[in-house]
Design a protein that fits this description.
This is Transposase. Helix 3 crosses helix 4 and helix 4 packs antiparallel against helix 5. The longest helix has 20 residues. It contains 7 helices and 5 strands; from the N terminus they run αααβββαααββα. A hairpin with a 4-residue loop joins strand 2 and strand 3. The C terminus is likely disordered. It has a 3-stranded antiparallel sheet with strand order 1-2-3, with no helix packed on it. The chain binds zinc ion.
């Protein structure tokens, strides 16, 4: 299943999401499932796509360098040696996606939270600690409150930035043409 099929309103469900992410029992499955979660985050502009390469503060263009120690497996670098982590200033900056808690599990937590699951259900279904479930649901609430208070009709303006405690949730430049998709997911939470 590709992401466009997954996000059709008559397809999107906890079961379709599970099929899209796949199992995460073995180490190999965990890695693959984490990548599927990254596809969802990329689609919604939360992490950069292949076409979103920033310009360095020194004015030189940046390019991708593979770095397996990084959250997304790469970082941006310019010819002057400056480096940027691709999750900088995004929702994922302070989130550890390595190891057990991959993007697949973060997506699962977001989904369950959006359909009003309680913390115990999220903890059990995503198979994480209670502390993790509590911390994330608090974070989601902060983010949702921030968006609700933001004039989100303005999202899409290239200078518009949604921030949560100094962290940019997403930047409009990653979101051109995807505003409706974002609103669609937002509406699922109502
Ligand atoms: Zn530079």
């Amino acid at each position: 299943m590709d992401i466009n099929t997954l996000l059709q309103p008559d397809c999107f469900s906890v079961f379709a999401l599970g099929a899209f992410l796949g199992p995460s029992i073995t180490e190999e499955q965990r890695i693959l499932s984490g990548r599927q979660g990254e596809i969802i985050f990329t689609y919604f502009g939360i992490i950069p796509s292949d076409f979103d390469v920033p310009e360095c503060r020194c004015g030189r263009p940046m390019y991708r360098v593979n770095d397996s120690s990084r959250k997304l497996g790469y970082r941006f670098k310019c010819a002057g040696g400056h480096k940027i982590n691709p999750t900088k200033n995004t929702f994922l900056e302070y989130v550890h996606t390595a190891g057990e808690l991959g993007c697949n599990k973060i997506v699962q937590m977001i989904y369950l939270w959006l359909i009003s699951s309680d913390t115990a259900t999220i903890q059990r279904e995503v198979n994480i600690s209670t502390e993790t479930a509590v911390a994330y649901t608090e974070y989601f609430r902060d983010v949702a409150t921030k968006i609700m208070n933001h004039d989100y009709l303005m999202i899409g303006n290239e200078h518009d930035i949604v921030e949560v405690d100094e962290t940019h949730l997403f930047r409009a430049k990653y979101n051109v043409g995807r505003v409706m998709a974002w609103n669609a997911v937002w509406l699922f939470g109502n």
